[in-house]
Automatic annotation (TrEMBL):
<dbReference type="InterPro" id="IPR004304">
    <property type="entry name" value="FmdA_AmdA"/>
</dbReference>
<protein>
    <submittedName>
        <fullName>Acetamidase/formamidase family protein</fullName>
    </submittedName>
</protein>
<dbReference type="Pfam" id="PF03069">
    <property type="entry name" value="FmdA_AmdA"/>
</dbReference>
Length: 390
């Protein structure tokens, strides 16, 4: 039995090579040497690889960094076949990126990001609304790593080895896709946990001419690693440059809050996202001043706080939540503070990305009887595009 197959069957999910399978977006952006950055994020001087109108969707082929990094041999075919993956189940774009995209392993981050995408009508001060429409696994396997002495237990784990990467096959159990692990090294995959795919990195370009490192998140979004951002959710980001210059990457199949070992179950996804511009005045009317990533799920509004110090990130998140409650629902500060203490969970997004993250889950149903305004997007542009980058 191969590491990514079930007994007597094919792969648990179809392998989505570039151009293969459903592509539901208005536009399609493949991961190629011309459309990705490896280890760095776009800045204001980067040229867009695709231009779209507000309200349009893009299907991205994202590529996980796991299996292509230097400590894994920088050869995904050799790495994954050593874990029993058939050669035809290894993504062609991962092989091409590993072989031909430049990355400094001592100065750059690990993440492969696709973009940037210019959204017409997006100006600094606006919000870019990114709705996650579909997230399809591209392969039936992934990897969880603890490397370079990083993670929540620095100096304790990994023991005796500099880098530990754990292969995890995907299996279907009772109609639900699960990641699987053995209890002991080399054993049968008896442990199973449900997949909950999301993109760890969604962001907008920063001002200036210096590309940020891909690891620390910030006001631009980037590697925020908030596992609530599954299908049907939305991320709002403050636009920092003309056209927003949005990008995505760091695909995950599953992640626990904290991401304590350093990485989640990292694996490639085909992601379809819809981009809408919320003009600055409409954004302030709906949410007040949004200075960092704001998540919205069908149940929660989720302000964030970030800082290299986890305690400071927690305080920043509380301040963001107080500001949101005051701006959106007119709640007095002392009453908002009391509400957060009684009714809101503050979760640790991650503690392993140089800048730690905390996010608050504010139930919108609690405010059903309080008037509020919805953020109204810019009307979609109707000018035809010259064509898509694929």
């Amino acid at each position: 039995m191969s590491g990514a197959d079930l007994p007597g069957s094919g792969p648990a999910v179809p392998v989505l090579q570039p151009g293969v399978g459903a592509i539901p977006g208005d536009h399609y952006l493949r991961a190629t040497p011309e459309t990705v950055l490896w280890g760095r994020l776009p800045c204001a001087v980067d040229a867009a690889v695709l231009e779209i109108g507000s309200g349009e969707s893009v299907t991205f082929d994202t590529v996980s960094h796991e299996g292509i990094l230097d400590d894994q041999g920088k050869d995904p075919r050799a790495y994954f076949t050593s874990h029993g993956v058939p050669s035809e189940h290894i993504l062609d774009d991962a092989i091409e990126i590993a072989a031909s995209v430049a990355r400094d392993p001592f100065a750059d981050g690990p993440h492969v990001v696709v973009g940037p995408v210019r959204v017409r009508g997006a100006h600094p001060g606006d919000l870019l609304k990114i709705t996650v429409e579909t997230l399809a696994p591209r392969v039936p396997y992934g990897v969880i790593s603890n490397r370079h002495g990083k993670g929540a237990l620095v100096g304790e784990l990994p023991r005796g080895e500099h880098n530990v990467s754990v292969f995890a096959a995907v299996a279907e159990r009772d109609g639900v896709l699960h990641g699987t692990l053995p209890v002991t090294e080399g054993g049968e995959p008896a442990v199973a946990f449900p997949l909950s795919p999301f993109l760890g990195t969604m962001g907008v370009a920063v001002a200036g001419d210096e590309r940020p490192h891909s690891v620390p998140p910030g006001t631009h979004g980037g590697n925020i690693d908030i596992n609530l951002l599954v299908e049907g959710t939305t991320l709002f980001l403050p636009v920092q440059v003309e056209g927003a210059l949005a990008y995505v990457g760091d695909p995950h199949f599953a992640q626990g809050d904290g991401e304590v070992a350093l990485t989640a179950l990292e694996a490639s996804l085909r992601a379809t996202l819809r981009f809408e511009v919320i003009p600055a005045d409409a954004a302030r009317t709906a949410f007040g001043e949004v200075t960092g990533p704001l998540v919205r799920t069908p149940e929660y509004l989720v302000p964030t706080g970030m800082d290299p110090d986890l305690d400071a990130a927690m305080r920043a998140c509380v301040r963001s939540a107080l500001s949101l409650l005051g701006a959106r629902w007119g709640m007095d500060e002392h009453l908002a503070y009391a509400y957060l203490s009684a009714a809101t969970d503050f979760d640790i997004s991650q503690v392993v990305d140089i800048v730690s993250g905390v996010h608050a889950r504010i139930r919108e149903a609690d405010f059903a009887g309080v008037p509020s305004v919805e953020p109204q997007p810019l009307a979609s542009a109707t000018a035809p595009l010259d064509g898509d980058v694929a």
